[in-house]
Specification:
Shape: globular
Helix content: 25-40%
Radius of gyration: 23 Å
CATH topology of the largest domain: Aminoglycoside 3'-phosphotransferase, Chain: A, domain 2
Number of strands: 16
Number of helices: 12
CATH class of the largest domain: Alpha Beta
CATH superfamily of the largest domain: Aminoglycoside phosphotransferase (APH), C-terminal lobe
Largest sheet: 7 strands, antiparallel
Length: 458
């Protein structure tokens, strides 16, 4: 099936996609959970790179263009141009078990007469991807690497996870999980960089990468990371909801989660350089929060009545002389869905940060209080996801988490109330913008927090 290859001349930049395939992808991409340009038409599609992994299986990087401001224009604002990773199967006769993965039938061009489907649903294609990861090497612009100290068995049965997420995850034989970054940005993804660094620090709270792959075309970028799969673990969100449903106390779990978070922060401070507090740092941080609020208010009118109160949180931060603690690498998007518990032990996963933000921004040093605020907001999310609302449950979890954090870190984030309130407010604003775009039914949850935070005073 040599005719399935799509050729992009090396060094000549992105090339047009065959019109028949472009038409299929233009209709299919906006329907995917991981597609960032929701609600905006795809105005152009170009081929960044194409690699035939085997006849009938194509790895593509595809650039999309659509109306909209750049990603750094506001919290979670989608970019006018994005690059996506696709694994496409092409065949004349599609097996019945892959019918749900169909993208469409190409009528003309190099794929004319062939059915195109999402090959991440195809055990043959994803099994081959694991074999590539087991043996370091290259395939066109793709590079496959692994930790030589970790044994990855062959012939592990792949299984695609159907959880709602901004990437694609495959479990192999309940032994490993491969996260494939659908939205590709230049640079080393923090979800590879940070766990590798923490593994060198012997931090057992974070699963160490076993293998990974990336691309050198048009620029270096991380495409996927293989890590041990904690098959007996439950994620924090599910555990929290179970606690609420059974009216069971979650304080002990929240305390231990606080300890685990502090241990990860301590390891990160050892693994990466830190920045000591500097004069004017609080004002610069507050200005960035004001800017994100401005952008969110332009997009979500429900925020307008609370604007003055929200600004007071950022103004109180700006009035501080400086931050108390050094800035360091942090998780960047910490919440109950990013932690796993097996037995009594918590692990922290998914160091990618907020995918809507540029990788360069996600790799910046920040106050660890930002991660603390993210988890405190997550307890509130869990409490408000059920009726009747349980503010007492959320308050108890928040206090227990901070107490556990203080026990391991030897400092208490509650001792910096202006910084904690500002980060919680900034996070709630981000949540409002995200829910308005992706899950409107959930908008009342962060809006309730916005009302509480806007009414609070230092």
């Amino acid at each position: 099936m040599a005719k399935t290859a799509l050729h992009r001349p090396s060094g000549l930049g992105p090339a047009p996609l065959p019109p028949s395939l472009a038409e299929l992808l233009r209709a299919w991409l906006p329907r995917q959970r991981w597609f960032a340009g929701k609600g905006r038409p795809v105005t152009d599609l170009t081929l960044v790179s194409s690699t035939e992994l085997y006849p009938g299986c194509l790895h593509l990087l595809v650039r999309t263009e659509h109306p909209g401001p750049p990603a750094h224009g506001g919290a979670g604002t989608p970019a006018a141009e994005d690059c996506y990773q696709l694994l496409l199967g092409v065949t004349r006769t599609l097996p019945p078990h892959l019918a749900h993965a169909v993208i469409g039938r190409a009528e003309t061009g190099p794929l004319g007469g062939l059915t195109v489907y999402d090959a991440f649903h195809d055990p043959k294609a994803t099994g081959l991807l694991l074999e590539r990861l087991r043996v370091p090497g290259s395939a066109g612009p793709l590079r496959f690497d692994r930790d030589p100290g970790v044994a990855v068995p062959g012939s592990l049965t792949p299984r695609l996870l159907d959880a709602e997420q901004s990437n694609t995850s495959l479990v192999y034989g309940d032994a490993f999980i491969l996260k494939v970054f659908r939205r590709v940005q230049p640079g080393v993804n923090p979800d590879l960089e940070v766990p590798l660094a923490l593994a060198r620090q012997s931090c057992a709270r974070v699963p160490a990468p076993a293998a990974w792959f990336g691309t050198s075309q048009p620029r270096d970028a991380t495409l996927g990371v293989l890590q041990p799969y904690l098959r007996d673990a439950s994620d924090g969100w599910a555990l929290a909801l179970s606690s609420l449903a059974s009216d069971r106390d979650f304080g002990d779990e929240a305390y231990e989660l606080g300890r685990a978070t502090a241990e990860v922060h301590l390891a990160l401070a050892d693994a990466f350089p830190v920045d000591p507090p500097s004069p004017g740092g609080t004002k610069r941080l507050a200005e960035a929060m004001h800017e994100r609020l401005d952008a969110a208010v332009r997009s979500v009118s429900e925020l307008r009545p609370h604007t003055a109160g929200l600004r007071s949180a950022f103004d109180a931060l700006a009035d501080l002389d400086s931050l108390v603690r050094p800035a360091q690498r942090i998780h960047g998007d910490l919440h109950l869905g990013q932690v796993l518990r097996a037995g009594r032990r918590w692990s922290v996963i998914d160091f990618e940060g907020e995918p809507a933000r540029p990788i360069s921004e996600r790799r910046r040093v920040q106050s660890p209080v930002r991660d603390v605020a993210g988890m405190l907001r997550s307890f509130d999310y869990a409490a408000r996801s059920r009726r009747p609302w349980r503010p007492d449950w959320a308050d108890h979890c928040r206090e227990s988490f901070c107490a556990g954090y203080a026990a391991a870190a030897a400092w208490d984030p509650r001792e910096e109330p202006e910084l904690l309130r500002a980060y919680e407010t900034d996070r709630a604003v981000y949540e409002v913008l995200y829910e308005a775009r992706h899950r409107p039914d959930w908008l009342p949850v962060p809006m309730a927090a916005v009302g509480r935070l806007a009414a609070a005073r230092p």
